[in-house]
Amino acid sequence: MMTYEQRVIAELDRWEDELLKPTGLLQSVSKRVQTKINRAIPAKVQQTLTSTVRGIVRSVLFGLEYVPKQPPLLGISLQERDERARALLSTYQKIAAAEGAGTGAGGIVLGLVDFPALIAIKMKFLFELAHIYGYRTTDYRERLFLLYLFQLAFSAPERRKELLWKIKHWERVASELPPEREYLQQIDWEQFQREYRDAIDFRKMLQLVPLIGAVVGAWANYGLIEELGVVASNGYRMRILEANKAT
Fold first, then answer.
1. What is the pLDDT of residues 93-120, one digit of tens each?
2. Which InterPro entries match (predicted)?
């Protein structure tokens, strides 16, 4: 009989294969539609979205407002961590769905408000998840790890291999990191927000449609949190299993 850790390793192998699978026809068509949508968005709106993403990411890396009051959990099994992670994900899916339904019912103006609100919900979820898996988010490197998880969940397919490599080899990557402010200067903020927006475009655009906006907003936010939760949990599971191999 396989141990829990062996089952997780098998799950991670399947997940990694699925994550790195070449882009299919439907995704290619969707990408072309998204590109046309992006070109139709006024430059001022693009700049506002980029500034919003930059501001939230800066607050994540430099501030401590998202750091949970409870210390990281220590001395528990991976199985128990996974169970707590699933419970946390369920809670945040409900929070995000309620927020999406409220802004979706308000039309275009409130739909645009949902963009930064949803990012904030995702970041708070990631911080709490880190503590469930035993990592202290007062450390700048751990907050940067959260950022890589966020990017992997919503990045373009061609960037996933690079991001996954960094997550799988985080101890090596973290040891070579530049100081905080120097790292921030290296981020391509336009690309960051564009990839994130591309990943949610179709669902979030439907949220702006009158009459169905509330239903679509709840559905979109619920699914987006689930996608982030799967990537983030698997990222932490990889780190824990890798650390266990080294001991």
1. 988 877 765 544 444 444 455 567 777 8
2. EcsC
Residues in CB range of 46: below 8 A, 6 or more apart: 38, 190
The whole domain housing 168 covers 4-246
Give the whole-angstrom CA distance, residue 23 versus residue 104.
30
Contacts of 1 (CB under 8 A, 6+ apart): none
Alpha-carbon distance of 99 to 79, in angstroms, equals 30
Going 108 to 109 to 110 to 113, the CA torsion angle's sign is positive
- Tokens 């992006």 — which residue? 38
Find out whether 170 and 145 touch, Cβ atoms under 8 Å. Answer: yes
Cα-flanking dihedrals φ and ψ of residue 215, to 5°? -65, -45
Instruction: Please state, in angstroms and rounded to a whole number, the distance separating the CA atoms of residues 163 and 245.
Output: 22
Tell me, what amino acid is at 30?
A: S
pTM for this prediction: 0.79
Find the DSSP H helices in the chain: 4-19, 25-40, 43-62, 78-104, 107-132, 140-154, 160-168, 170-175, 180-184, 189-207, 213-246
Give the count of domains, the chain.
1
Kindly report the CA angle at 60 between 228 and 146, in degrees rounded to 5? 35
Lowest mean pLDDT among 89-103, 141-155, 195-209: 195-209
